[in-house]
C-alpha cells in the first residue's frame, strides 16, 4: 500500500445513512446478466452492505464476501447482513491493496464508488484481478464529479463541487474516477474491458430531499467538512452557506440534479 488512504466522506451517520440507500439493482445492474446463482462474489468497500445484501439475494447457491477497511462500518455492515437473514453473506475487515484471499477465489470482484477514493487505483485493480478466477470478472463503478449539475443552477452547489474536488485531490484521490476506469484497467493489465455509463438523477420530492439535506448535513458534520477546514479550502461560514444552498435546492419543487457513473466490466484472462 503506497500510503494510508484518506476517506474523503468519512463514516458519520449522514454519510452512512445516505449510502445505505444504495441497492444492487441500482448500482450493479451492469453486471446482473453475467451473474449465475452459484457465483462467489467479493464486494470491495462494502460500506453499510446494502448492495452486498442485494448481491447475496442474486446468488442463492453461491456466496458474497463484503470487505471494508473501516472498523466501525464493518460492524454496521455485519448488522445489516444479520438483519437480512441471509446465510450466504459475510463481512470482513480487509484492504483492497492486500486482499487476504488466494488467487482465483471469486467469479466477480466488484467495487462501487471505491476507486475514486484510492491513492493507487491501479494497484487495487491488480489485486482485485489476482483473486478473480480466470474467466471471471473485475467490475467497478464510479461517479464523475465533473458531470454533477443541477437546475435551477446554484452558486453554492457549484462551490460545494469545487471544494469537494480540491479536498479529494489533496487526499491523493480522483473525484472524476468514472472517466478513468478504462485507462486504469489497462494499466492494471486488464485488456478485455467493456465500458458503459449510467446516470443518476434526483428530482422526486423524496430523492431531492434525501440528496440535498444529506449533503447539507455532510458539509457541516462529516470528515469532508473537517478536511475542507483543515486544508484551508473553506471557512465554517462558507460551509454554512453551502449547506443553505443545498437545503434551498432540496425544497424547490423544480429542483433537479444528475451525474454520470462510469462502469467497467473487465474479463480476467
Description:
The chain is α/β, with parallel strands linked by helices and 269 residues long. It has a single domain, classed as Vaccinia Virus protein VP39 (Rossmann fold), CATH 3.40.50.150. The protein is 41% helix and 23% strand. It contains ten helices and eight strands. Strand 1, helix 3 and strand 2 form a beta-alpha-beta unit. Helix 8 crosses helix 9.
Which second-level CATH architecture applies? 3-Layer(aba) Sandwich
Proportion of beta-strand residues = 15-25%
User: What percent of the residues sit in helical stretches (DSSP H or I)?
Assistant: 40-55%
Shape: globular
The total strand number stands at 8
Structural class computed from helices and strand pairing: alpha/beta
Low-confidence stretches: none
Overall average residue pLDDT: 96
Amino acid at each position: 500500500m503506497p500510503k494510508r488512504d484518506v476517506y474523503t466522506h468519512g463514516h458519520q451517520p449522514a454519510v452512512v445513512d445516505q449510502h445505505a440507500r444504495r441497492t444492487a439493482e441500482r448500482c450493479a445492474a451492469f453486471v446482473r446478466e453475467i451473474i449465475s446463482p452459484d457465483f462467489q462474489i467479493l464486494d470491495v468497500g462494502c460500506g453499510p452492505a446494502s448492495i452486498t445484501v442485494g448481491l447475496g439475494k442474486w446468488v442463492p447457491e453461491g456466496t458474497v464476501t463484503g470487505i471494508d477497511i473501516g472498523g466501525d462500518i464493518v460492524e454496521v455492515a455485519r448488522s445489516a447482513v444479520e438483519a437480512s437473514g441471509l446465510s450466504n453473506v459475510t463481512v470482513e475487515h480487509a484492504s483492497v491493496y492486500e486482499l487476504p484471499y488466494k488467487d482465483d477465489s471469486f467469479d466477480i470482484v466488484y467495487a462501487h464508488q471505491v476507486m475514486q477514493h484510492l491513492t493507487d487505483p491501479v494497484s487495487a485493480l491488480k489485486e482485485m484481478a489476482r483473486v478473480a478466477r480466470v474467466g471471471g470478472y473485475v467490475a467497478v463503478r464510479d461517479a464523475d464529479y465533473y458531470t454533477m449539475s443541477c437546475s435551477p443552477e446554484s452558486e453554492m452547489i457549484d462551490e460545494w463541487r469545487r471544494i469537494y474536488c480540491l479536498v479529494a485531490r489533496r487526499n491523493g484521490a480522483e473525484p472524476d474516477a468514472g472517466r478513468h476506469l478504462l485507462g486504469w484497467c489497462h494499466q492494471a493489465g486488464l485488456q478485455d474491458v467493456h465500458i458503459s455509463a449510467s446516470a443518476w438523477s434526483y428530482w422526486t420530492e423524496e430523492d431531492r430531499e434525501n440528496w440535498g439535506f444529506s449533503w447539507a448535513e455532510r458539509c457541516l458534520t462529516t470528515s469532508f467538512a473537517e478536511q475542507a477546514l483543515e486544508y484551508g479550502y473553506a471557512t465554517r461560514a462558507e460551509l454554512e452557506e453551502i449547506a443553505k444552498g443545498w437545503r434551498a435546492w432540496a425544497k424547490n419543487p423544480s429542483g433537479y440534479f444528475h451525474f454520470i457513473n462510469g462502469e467497467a466490466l473487465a474479463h480476467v484472462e
